[in-house]
Amino acid sequence: MVLRAPAKLNLCLYLGGRRGDGLHELCSLFEPLELADLIEVSPAEEDEVHCPGVEGENLAARALAALRERGWEREGLRLEIEKRVPVAAGLGGGSADAAAVLRLAAGEVPDLPRLAAELGADVPSQLRPALALVRGGGERVEPLPEPAEHAVVLLPGGGGLGTAEVFAEADRLGLGRGAEELDELAERLREAAGAGASPLSYPELLVNDLEPAALSLRPEIGAALEALRGAGAPLALLSGSGPTAVGLFPDLGSARVAAAATGYEEAIVCAAGQARLPR
Length: 279
Known about the structure:
It contains nine helices and ten strands. With 279 residues, it is α+β, with helices and mostly antiparallel strands.
């Protein structure tokens, strides 16, 4: 069996205050990308997780261990993860891997969303990859209609920008919004995306409040965003906590032309939205 673990794109990210558990209140639109890790699952005498090229424990291993702690009794499994989603790039690759593992126990282990939230803020939304309005610290996930066709160009920027580091810098810079404003923005996003429109039809709402913090830590992100704009991207923004710069385009054809025009050899072109994800 081969599982797909799609990358996720933050079409916007509005930052609220820090909560008692250390997480920040957020308001965001998440959507899956065609780009995905592949996880080969095979029987084994005991559980083992291998992710070539990525050192240390990963979230997929933690997800499998958590299922066992909750009494999941399926035979031992070997998970071989082929990383296609850039690591530490603000694209949720590790969270997607963990969610894919949790899906193996769907209907066999109760309350998977709660378990997902215990593993990480981005994991609950990845249990069922689809366009979603995400609130709280990531645990409140509201599915939205499938959006109209669009595509993205990703400039990963080498990865390695820590999420905690970016949020700490955002706090230092005094970024963030009040609870009432987050509620108002959520309603505007729900209305704009609720009819299945392309995100390019509501660009004024696609803002990432973490962008100034990421730029403070990694100034070269600004050059990547400008390269996308110069190549004709109708909208360019930071994904998640970065450092991946993202250009949104109406279709794959225009995205491919723009990717070549950026001059970035590492540019990744892919479709966005769940209907274009291979089953």
